[in-house]
Fold this protein.
Amino acid sequence: PAGAGRGAAGADGGAGPVGDSGERARGEAEAGGFEGDVDWQEETIIFALIERAQFKQNLYIYEKDKVDNEHFKGSFCDYMLFEIENAYAKFRRYTSPDEHPFTSPSLLSSPVLPPVAYPATLVPNSVNHNARILSAYVADLVPMVCDVGDDNNYGSSAVADVAVLQALSKRVHYGKFVAEAKWQEDPEGYARLVGERDRQGIWMRLSDFGVEKVLLERVRAKAATYGKEIGGAGAGAAGEEEEGGRWKVDPGKIVNIYKDYIIPMTKDVEVEYLMQRVENS
């Protein structure tokens, strides 16, 4: 099923026991140990993209105002996000500091569970890049991984969309915890750059291109392994040949999604968080 890959988030935002997500992120922000979460987030994103690729683009589900009733007005994809996120909100998923709904919080139900006392790992901030993630996903990512056309699988496509979008959001906004850990290593240096409003300087200081190169190589290897066609006659147009193999989604496309979208968006979140960290302190 969609989103059933390793690391699929629980209602409280964690992949494991209820309420553990914010606590785990706190420890990683303190220790700089992000490798485990980044690793399973990669797998979740790759599996979710492969799941979406089995359906055609089905652009009908992204057309505005196809759903228009007394409770909601928007695209079918937006409506699916609203309904699913409203259910998750009841079980306090979006009280976790590493979860961000695409739906306006004002439209979501209040939790039916008592609140979790998450440690104050991050400073108060309003960084939320979900609108940008959704726009890029519909305009660029869906055409990258899905065949052109309409197969009428609107519900299944939208469910798969939600899985991809939530995985992308979690990965991109995890940049807040990365930024906090880097701030703890060099508060004076980052404070100076923030004071100078030098966003490009912050971006470069946050960047480790050697680590990014290793990440992209790891993503390519995982995408090639998890998405390889086993004995079947055909992948769709998305599954192009690469080094003699056939894939449900060309591994190079998933690498490009990381290189051109996920990594830059994550660093933008890191920069914006650090700007707000100083301004709000």
In short: The two ends are 43 Å apart (CA to CA).
